[in-house]
Fold each of these.
Amino acid sequence: MRNNIVPIGGGEMTYEIRAIVDIADKLKKLGLKTNMENIGDPVAKGEQIPGWMKQIVADLAMENTSYGYCPTRGVLETREFVAELTNQRGKLQITPEDILFFNGLGDAIQKVYGYLRHECRVIVPSPTYSTHSSAEAANAGQPAVTYRLAAENYWYPDLEELRNKVKYNPAISAILLINPDNPTGVVYPEAILREIVAIAKEYDLFIISDEIYHNITYNGTSTLPISDLIGDVPAIAMKGISKEFPWPGGRSGWIEVYNADKDPIFAKYIASILNAKLVEVCATTLPQMAVKPMMTHPEYPVYLEERKNRYARASNIAYDILKDVPGLKVNRTNGAFYMAVAFDDGMLTGTQSLPIGNAEVKTLVEGLVNTPGCSLDKRFVYYLLASTGICTVPLTSFCTTQPGFRITLLERDEAELTRIFQTIAASVQTYLQS
C-alpha cells in the first residue's frame, strides 16, 4: 500500500472465542464430531425460548413502530422502565436521559473505550472478557493494563495489586469490573466492590461495571449492582438482554451513566459517546420494545429461576469432576455460565500431546501446535479438540499469562455434560503425563 493503513492498536483486536470455530469447522470436515463449548450462546446450545416470549416478539413485529427509528438514546418507555429498576433500589436516582441503548454490549464497549483519549487507560481484570481488553488496548495502541484475578483465591481480584497499579500509573483513568465475571464465573461480594469504589474515589477515577450477567447468580450467592455502592463516583454500568432472556441475536444492550453531574470532564466524555450514537441515528428498535413486556411478564421470574437452577447443577457437576484432578486450579462457578480452569505453574510443556485417531486431523493439529507463538494452553486446547471433539478456549486468550481453559456450562443434557467433563478430566491427566 502507498501508506500504512493499519491503525495503531489494530493488532490488539483479537477474539479467540470465535476464532477457534474456524479450526473446529476444519476438523468437522475431516470427520470429527464436536461439542462446541467455546461461546456463551444458550440458544446455540439448545435453550428453549418459551412461547410467551416468542409471542411478545411476534406481537411487536405486527406494530408499525417496530420498523422505524427510535430516539438516539433508545425507546423512551424502555429507558423509563430500566431507570425505574435502578431507582427502586433507593441507593441512586437516575433519569431516562442517563441511559443509552446500543446494538449489543459489543457496540457499547467499542464506543466506551473508543472515545477515551488514547493516553488514558482503563485497568482491566486478568483474565478478562476479550472484547473489553482488546477494545481498550486498541484505543491505546498498547497492550492492556491489568490487575490479577487470583485462581488460588476463588478468582477474586488482587486488590493490593490493583491499588498499587492505580497509584503508580497516572495514565489509569478508570477501573473495569465484570460482575458476575466472564470468563471465571466469580461473583463479587460486597466488600470487594466497596474497595474498588474506594480506590476509584481516592484516585479520582471512574468505574466501568459490566453487569450483563447480574441476574444470573446461584449456589446461594448474590451480588449488588454498582449503583448501590457507587456514592458520588462517576460510573458506567453495562446491561443487556443477550444473556438474561436470552436473546443474543437481538443485539440490544445499554449503559447507565451515574454521577455525570459530579464531574464536568466525565460529562463531556459521556456527551462524546452520545454524539457518536447521533451519527448512527439509533440502535435497533424492536428488541428495545420487548424489554419491558418480557421482564414484567408473570412467567419471566419463573423461567429465569429455572435457568439459574440448571446452571447451578451444571457448575456443581463440573466442579465435582475437576476439583481433584492433579495439576489444576478449580473454582466453583457461582454466576454467569462459564468455568475458568487454570493449570498449576510449570505443568504444561511444549512436548505434551493426546492421542488422535484420525490421521488427517492429527496432521492438521500438529501443524497448528507447532506454529511459532502458539501458547502452551492453546496447544492443550487444540489437542483436546482433536482428540475428543470438545471445543474450549485457551485461558491466555483472555488477557492473562495464566494458562488454562474456559468452558461453558450450557449443555442441557446432564448426562452429556457429565461425559464432557469426565472426558476433560481424563484428558488432562493423560496430557500432563505424556
Note: The chain has 13 helices and 14 strands.
Amino acid sequence: MDEVDVVLLNPPFFRFCGSHNNRLPPSLSYLSAYLEAAGISHALYNADYTESKRFWSMKWMFDNFDPFIDAVDGKGSLYGEVVEIVQSFRPKAVVIMGGEPLIATKDWGNPFIAAHYARMLRRMNVFTVGLSHFFTLDRSKFEDAFDCIMGGEPNAQIVDIIRKRVPGYVSPQPLDLNVVPNLKRQFPTDQDTDFVMTSFGCRFPCSFCLVQQLYRELDQRVRFVETDTVMRDLQQRSESEIYLTDLTFTFAPPKRLRELADALGARGIQKSFTVEARVDCLTERTADLLTELNVRCVKLGVEGITKDLLRAFNKRTKLAQIERAVGLLKERGIAVVTYLLIGGVTSEEDYELTRSYIEKLAPDFVPVAIWSYDLTTDYRYDTQFSPTRLNAWGIDRSVYFKYMDLQSEMNPTVGKMLDYVS
C-alpha cells in the first residue's frame, strides 16, 4: 500500500447494515480527477466495498437495523478497521463523504457516521474535509467535526483546500462540465464503475427529495455535461451495461438526446443503458430516442397513485401519464422499474390502492423507499429502509412488507438478492 497525500474516503454505510455497496462513489471520482490534474497523490477508498456479488434485501436490513443505530452512535468495529486502513496510506488529509451530493436521491452514506470518522482522524493529526449535501443544507450540526467542509458539488476548490489547509466552510462552486471522473486511484481496485452522469441537478420540487433542496440552495438549474466529455467517460468504463444516473435523464430536450445518440454511433460505443425518468417527461419521440440510445431499462418515479399521496409527495403527475409512459416503454421492449414511496400519508387504503395498481401494471422491478431525511427532525437513524422513520410516520410495517412482496429476486440496478423470509 503506497503512501499518499490524500485519501478520499467513502465510509461504510451498508456494511454497518450487514450488506455492502461496491460502486465507486461518483463525487469522489470527480475529486480524484481534480487532484490527479494537480499532481496530488491520493487514493479513493470505498470502505463500503466487499467482494460479495449478492445482496441482502432492504427487508432484511429493515429487520436487522440495530447495528446501524449503533454505528450512528459511534459504536462498531468497522470504525477501527477503516481508520486502520486509512492510516496505512499515511495521508496528510482525508476527504470524507457523508452522503453522495450528486445523487442525493439514494442512500449512500450517513453524515453522522462520517463525522465520527472525522473526529477520530483529527485526533491523529489528520486534516479532514467533509463532502455531502447534508453538510451544505444542515452544516451547523457537523462543522465542528471537520477541519473544513466543502459546500455543494465536488469542484476544483479541492486543490486549494488540500494545499493550503483551508479551514471552515468553503462556499459552493459548480462542478465543471468538461471533467472526466478519474477511475485510476480506486481502492479496492475492482469496484463497479458503471455509474455515469450526463447532467447535474433537478428542477422538479418533489417534497421528499433532498436534491430539490440542495439545488435550490445552490441556485443552479439543470446543467448538461459536454457531449465529448460524456463520450470520453463512457469509453473508459469497462462495463457494457451502464447506469446513467442523471436525476431525470429524460428531462434533456430531444436535441440533446439526438446528439448523444449520434455521438455514440460516431465513436462506435456499444453499451446498453439504464436511466431515471419522470412519467411526465416521456413522449413518443423521447421513447424512440431512448431506443436509439440502446436504453434497456427505465426507472420511473411513480411513488404513489392516489390524490393524497401525490399531493403529499408534490409529484404533479397523473395516472394517465403513468400508464402512457409504461405503455410507450413496453411497446419498445424497454424494461420498466417503478419506484414507490412510503410516508407523508398514514392511510393504509392509499398504499393498498397503489400496491394493487402497480401489481396490475406489472413492472419488471419495484424499488421501495421510506420517506426519510426530514432535516427539521431528528434524522440520525434515517435510511430509506429505516424502521425508526416508518414508526415516526405512524405507518404499520405490514404496509412496507406488502410493498416489498412486489419485488422479484433480481434487482436490475444492484444484482441478485439473497433469499430471505422473516
Note: The longest helix spans residues 254-267.
